């Protein structure tokens, strides 16, 4: 059975087929599939280079199905961010678990990436709020808790985030200096 037929039998929908690496990247950019399955050895652009592009652009996870198991190819695939690597010949019953694990790992990766972004944003907001509290404490002789409550109250009254209020306080301080 060819790969497309195997995938269909397993209940997956194939949204595109490419004859070379450049076309695989182009189709993936266009269709944004849940998973890209490709070989390492392809014309125009090899599978590892294509996988690196798809991974860097966060288009889709890549599962390589290949007849090549040389250590340098495996290392290249790992460095490119490939999420799975299956050496041919393989059986249909080996394909579905590899796909499901690859999809699950990619979702976990995306969730972690989002969590890291949220944490960075929270940390940045805290830094700005701390600086603004310091300005209020210096300018008005407030205690730390009172400065925080003032920022918090302004945030609620204006329906703006505490970070936005803190940034406004810091901007006003800069304008006063000039």
TrEMBL record:
UniProt-listed InterPro entries: ANTAR, CheY-like_superfamily, Sig_transdc_resp-reg_antiterm, Sig_transdc_resp-reg_receiver, WH-like_DNA-bd_sf
Entry superkingdom: Bacteria
Keyword Iron-sulfur on entry: no
SMART domains, A to Z: ANTAR, REC
Pfam families found in the cross-reference section: ANTAR, Response_reg
Modified residues (4-aspartylphosphate): 39
Domain Response regulatory: 1-103
Key words, A-Z: Phosphoprotein
ANTAR domain segment(s): 109-170
Record-given protein name: Response regulator
Lineage: Bacteria, Bacillati, Chloroflexota, Chloroflexia, Candidatus Chloroheliales
């Amino acid at each position: 059975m060819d790969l497309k037929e195997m995938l269909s039998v397993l209940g997956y929908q194939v949204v595109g087929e490419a004859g070379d690496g450049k076309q695989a990247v182009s189709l993936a950019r266009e269709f944004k599939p849940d998973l890209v399955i490709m070989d390492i050895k392809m014309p125009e652009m090899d599978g590892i280079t294509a996988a690196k592009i798809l991974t860097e652009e966060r288009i889709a996870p890549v599962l390589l199905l290949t007849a090549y198991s040389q250590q340098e190819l495996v290392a290249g695939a790992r460095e490119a961010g490939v999420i799975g690597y299956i050496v041919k010949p393989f059986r249909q019953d080996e394909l579905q678990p590899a796909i499901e694990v690859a999809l699950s790992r990619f979702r976990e990766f995306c969730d972690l990436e989002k969590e890291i972004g949220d944490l960075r944003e929270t940390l940045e907001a805290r830094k700005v709020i701390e600086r603004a509290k310091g300005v209020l404490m210096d300018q008005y002789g407030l205690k730390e808790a009172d400065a925080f409550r003032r920022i918090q109250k302004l945030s609620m009254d204006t329906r703006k985030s505490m970070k936005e209020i803190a940034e406004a306080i810091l901007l006003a301080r800069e304008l006063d200096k000039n």
